[in-house]
UniProtKB/TrEMBL annotation:
A GO-annotated cellular component: cytoplasm
Source taxonomy: Bacteria, Pseudomonadati, Campylobacterota, Epsilonproteobacteria, Campylobacterales
NCBIfam families: 16S_RimM
Record-level Gene Ontology MF annotations: ribosome binding
Function statement: An accessory protein needed during the final step in the assembly of 30S ribosomal subunit, possibly for assembly of the head region. Essential for efficient processing of 16S rRNA. May be needed both before and after RbfA during the maturation of 16S rRNA. It has affinity for free ribosomal 30S subunits but not for 70S ribosomes.
The name this protein goes by in its record: Ribosome maturation factor RimM
Main location: cytoplasm
Gene symbol of the encoding locus: rimM
Subunit structure: Binds ribosomal protein uS19.
Occurrences of domain Ribosome maturation factor RimM PRC barrel (ranges): 96-166
């Protein structure tokens, strides 16, 4: 069962165990009452309440400032299964963990495989590990494709772990 990083806890706020919540996920709705997360210290904690406007969260059994302080700087993780259950995707939205290791095809040419995803202010980028065949033709070992539908991404087939692209070979050649 693979863990998915979703947030970091900041300092305690007030006397009742509220902590600042820094969400690193596109799905703030997953922080609802009763949701369970694992910390980077392998503690399992359950959300008691989450205030979206103030970006504050409180956990069961951490109801005063002294106890809550122990969670400061903890990273929160969920599972891929929980993510799929609680986070609803719109059209052409995908979970990062589903995109990782997909093969990238332009026409019938295998360009490589998704190695990672980078988040930049304007767009997310797929980091592609170039196929051996293209590396042997002196092309870069790694390149980035903007995750923009219609311009670069044509179709994503999660079941078969394939992403069909256009204009990406030009990016590879010029990387």
């Amino acid at each position: 069962m693979s863990k998915v990083y979703v947030a970091k806890l900041g300092k305690a706020v007030g006397l009742q165990g509220h902590l600042r919540l820094f969400i690193d996920s596109d799905f703030p709705e997953q922080f609802k009452k009763g949701a369970v997360f694992t910390t980077n210290r392998n503690l399992e904690i359950k959300v008691l309440d989450y205030n979206k406007e103030r970006e504050l969260v409180r956990f069961e059994n951490y109801l005063d400032v002294e106890v809550a302080k122990k969670l400061t700087n903890s990273e929160l993780f969920t599972t891929q299964e929980a993510t799929k259950e609680f986070c609803k995707l719109k059209e052409n939205e995908f979970f990062w963990f589903d995109l990782i290791s997909c093969e990238i095809f332009e026409n019938d040419l295998l360009l490589g495989k998704v190695k990672d995803i980078h988040r930049y202010p304007l767009n997310d980028y797929l980091e592609i590990e170039t196929s051996r065949e293209l590396i042997s033709k002196e092309l870069p070992k790694v390149f980035l494709i903007p995750h923009i539908f219609d311009k670069f991404i044509e179709k994503v087939d999660i079941e078969n772990k394939r992403i069909f692209v256009k204009n990406a070979f030009d990016i590879l050649e010029n990387s």
